[in-house]
Design a protein that fits this description.
By secondary structure, this protein is an alpha+beta fold. It contains 4 helices and 6 strands. The termini are far apart. The model has no long low-confidence stretch (mean pLDDT 96).
Amino acid sequence: MTNMMKFQVTGTSNKMKSELNINKHALTIDEPANMGGTDLGPDPISNLLASLAGCENVIANLVAKEIKFNLQGIEFDMKGELDPRGLMGQADVQPFFNHVSVYAKVKTDETQQRVDELKEIVDARCPVFTMFKAAGIPIEATWVKA
């Protein structure tokens, strides 16, 4: 497998804040004050949802070119739900998302049927979306024409 893409994140952490480096980019992940952080960056769980939005966008743009879809932009609303008792150590509660939802408003002059086609291909190819599915996390996606 010589065509493998490699990814690396480096950095340091102090209390709840992590200062991370991704290629030439800096990223701060933190927790709000009520969780013991300094609120200097998004929390890790929200960052995961942001990664889902970013990944869906990238794949949508790649797929749009392939299927000759006039994609003019996407507005995302990502939601995730988890029970914090799991991450606080309660053994009978899972520490990860119970449910994730994706709502996308697609700017285009294409039909809703074509938007549905784009969504199906994107959801099948997006590494972050498929990772949620592979982990058994219920994830629902709704894409509508804006």
